[in-house]
Amino acid sequence: MNNRLVLILKKVEGATRLPFVGLFVAFVICAIVTVILKASIQSSNNNGGDVVKFEMPSVAELYPQALTKAQEWHEDAYMASAKIGVRVSATWATFFFDSLNNPNEGLLVTFWLLEHGYEIEVENVDAPGRLEADPPINREDWDVDSIEAARIAFDNRGKEFLYEHPEADRAMLQLTRVSGSAAENTGLEMNRIVWVMHYYQLRGVELRVFVDPITGEIIGEQFFEADNFDPDIDNELEVDTF
Question: For the chain, how many structural domains are there in total?
């Protein structure tokens, strides 16, 4: 059975900004698990209130299909990271696979989510000069699925951020390893496996919420506000920039 998580956030008409403890008064929150595999983010005006809708697919359910495609590429292929991108115009889930015996190349398996089902795209990626492959993220490294990680991030920090920053109309969820400034700014251990939920505006504000993939605990967050920052381009956690 294919599942998705639907999270709907609505700012009530006439509501004013409230202290953190009172934010729930300003929202109508709906979380629904359905049997259709789809992901999207939609923003609109509804009777004067801003509405944001997130739908998140299950990485755990897509993973076996992605792994099968990757092992057709190389028998020793393994997942190094995964990403779900959420836009108004398109939504996709991308798995990046590596091979210890072939460090100069990688494989991207992308599921483009359609109204009914999905379309699979497989792409070889060259990495000339790379000395070794990225370490694996094995299935036992993440008990918490993308659906749970998205709900945890939304309930604990995301809805507050979206209320304060209605211009943030994009989202991205990654299963990856901590690196670079993320380790320095959050105190998280380098190479620790994490779920990272991004809420952002293109070249504007961004919130990253880090979720432990075993316990589901919120373990860190980062906030960015820069006119020239684009997480699709500048984010060192990106799965397909090598």
Answer: 1
